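Case study.
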Amino acid sequence: MEFNWSPTEQALRARVRALLQRELPQDWEALSRHGPGSRAQTEFSLSFCPKLAAEGLLVPHWPQEHGGRAAPPWEHFIIGEELWAAGEPRGPQYMNVNFIGQTLMRYGSEAQKAQYLPPMAAGQSIWCQGFSEPSAGSDLASLTTRAERHGDAYIVNGSKVWTSYAGLAQTCFLLARTGGPGKGGIAIFLVPMGTPGITVRPIPSLIGVGDIHEVFFDNVAVPESARLGAEGQAWPIIGYALSHERVGIARYAFSRRVLDRMVRLLQARGLFDRETVKLRAAQALAACEAARMLVYRVVDQRARGLPPSADANLARVAVVAADNAVADFCVNYLSDTLSGDDFPLHLSHHERAIAAGVASGAAEIQLNLIAHDYLQLPREARP
Amino acid sequence: MNFELSEDQRAVLDAVDRLVERHRTTLAVPERYHYSVELERDLEAAGFFDCMAIEELGTVTACASVMAVARLPLCAETATSSLIAPWLCPELPRPFALLWNRDAPTRYLPVARTVIRVRGDLVDFSSIGVEHVEHVDSIFAYPMGVLRSASSLPWKPLPHADVARVRNFWRIALAAEITGCLDAALASVLEHVKDRRQFGRPLGSFQAVQHRLAECATLVEGAKWLTLKAASTGTALDAALAAGRAQDIATRISYDLHQFMGAMGLTLEHPLHRWTYRVKLLRADLGGADSQLIAAAQAAWPETHNNAIEGIAS
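After joint prediction, the assembly is written out as follows.
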C-alpha cells in the first residue's frame, strides 16, 4: 500500500502544471467562467488540445496505431485530474479521450476509426452525447427517438434534451431506437451535426451559458455506415464506454483547489479565525479527500486489470457530496463572491457542483446500483 | 499510488481475520458489552500487537488489524497496544488505558495493567491493578472505570514521548476503531433488512432504506481509506482528517442503522449496540469531531504569516 506518488508520477504532474502555467492565458478564470461547453472554452480547447497532443499528453493511454503509446491508466488519470482541477482547458474534448475514442476503437468500422480518431488525437474534435430525452432521463432505455431504415440509410426523428456541448459539436454520439421497446431496440449513430434536419436550441440554465441544449431531429438522413455496432447493440456498447468513464471526471480535484482558494480569501479577510468556519472548511476538505480515496481505489483496480465493480458507484456518490460541500461552504461564508464577476472561479465551481449529482446519471441511480450490486440488497419491485 | 496490501501484510491480516472469525462464535449472554480476555490473549500470542514495529508490516497493518478486531461484537484493547505502545513503551505490560487530559470514566481502566496519562505536554504511566480502579456502570460498550486515587499511583514520566506524536497515532487508532465498528454494524443491519419482511417483502427492497444504507456504505468506505492513508503517511493532517471524518459521520450512520434495526436494535439480544455504543464513546474522544476537524483545518491551511515564517526557516 502506497499513498504517495512515484517520482515518475510526480514528474508527469509537474509537466502538466508547467504546461498549464505556460499555456493558460492571464484571464483564464474569466474565460472559463461558463464551463467546458461554453463557446469561449470550446474554442480555447481547439488551440490548447493540439499543444497537449504535441507534448504527448492528450491520448497517451491510446495504442500507438492511434497516436498514443499505451501508457498505464494512472498516467491518463493524473493528466485528467490536473486539467479538470484547472477548469478543464480541454473543454468538451475530455469526453473524446476519456471514452468516446476507446469506444470507437473497439466497436467502430475501419472507416469510422479513420474518420474520427485522427482529429480526436490531434485535439480538433468536438462531440456531444445525444442521450437524454424529454421523457427518458434516468430511465434512458425508454428513449423514443426513432431511426427508421430506408434502404442503406436511416431517417431519424425525435428530440434530445439537456445535451451538453451540442451547440458547437461537430458530431453527435446519438442513441436512437431501430427496433422494439427496451434496451435491445436501441442503436448508436455517429451523426455529423451539420446534417440537414438537425436543429439545436440552447437552454437557458443555471450551469453556464451555452452548456445544455435541446436537439431536434426532423427527418434526418443518416447513412448505414454511420451506425456504430449492430442494431440493438447500443446497451453493451454504452456499458463498455462507461467502463472507461467509470469514475468520470476528477471533480473532487477542482473542488479541493477551489476550497483552498476560498480559505485563502477568508484568511486574507481575517475571517478564518472563527472555529465554526474552520470546522466547515475541514468538513468540506474531508468530503473531498474521502471522494479522492474512493476514486483512486477505482483507478488502482483498473490499473491492476481488475474488472469494473460497484466501487465506482460509491466513488461517484462521494464525489457529488464533495462538490456540494465545497459549493455550500462558499454560499455560507463567501456569498458576496457569487454576485458580480470578480470571482469567476467560485461561480464556475458552483455551477459544476449543482450539476454533479445530475449529469451523466443521477446520484440516486448510483445509490440504486450500490444497493443492488455492492450491498446485495433485493431489487425494488417495479410496476 | 497503490491500494494493494503487500504479501506479508495480506498474510498477517488474513490471519487476523481468521482469528476474528474464531471469536465471532463466542457471543455471550445479553449484556451491554463483552470484554474478551481470550481474544486479547490470542491476539497477543500471535504477535499481532507487534505489527507496527516490523518493517514489512508497519502502521498500515497495525491499523488494519485494529479495524478488523473492532468488527467483532466483543471488545479488546487493541488501539493503544497496536498503534502507540510499540513505539512509546514496548516494554510495559498490556492492556493499556489512556487518560487524555481528564479524569472522566475511561475505557479499559478496569482491565488495564498499565495506565498512560497525557497532561499538557507530559506523558507518564503507572502500572495498575483492579485495586486501583473503580468500575463504572456505563451506557458505553466498554469496560469503563475511574482511578480510585490517581495521586497515590507510582507515576513515571515517559521522557521521550512527543505528545503530538501520541495524538497522531491516537487519532489513527480512533479512526480505525470507529470505521471497523461502523463497518460491522452496517453489515449486521444489511443482514437484518435482507431477512426481515414487512408489507410482504424484505425491508431491504424498499428504496427509502436502500438509499440511506448506500450512503452509509459510501461514508464508511471513504472513512476507511482516509484512515489507511493516515496510517501510511502518518502526517498530522491525514490523522486529524481521518479521525475527524470518522467521528463526524458516526452520528448519522448510527442513527440510520438503529432505525433500520427497529425495536430489535433496542434489545441487548441483538449485537448492534455492541458497535454503536462503542462508537458513541469514540466519537467524543479527544474533544470529538470538531476538535479533530479544526486541527485538520489548521494543518491544511496554516495562516499566511506562519507560511512566511516556515518559508524563511526552510
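Observations recorded in class. The mean pLDDT of chain B is 93. The beta strands of chain B are 96-100, 106-107, 114-119, 122-127, 133-135, 144-147, 156-157, 197-198, 201-202. We will return to this complex in the next lecture.
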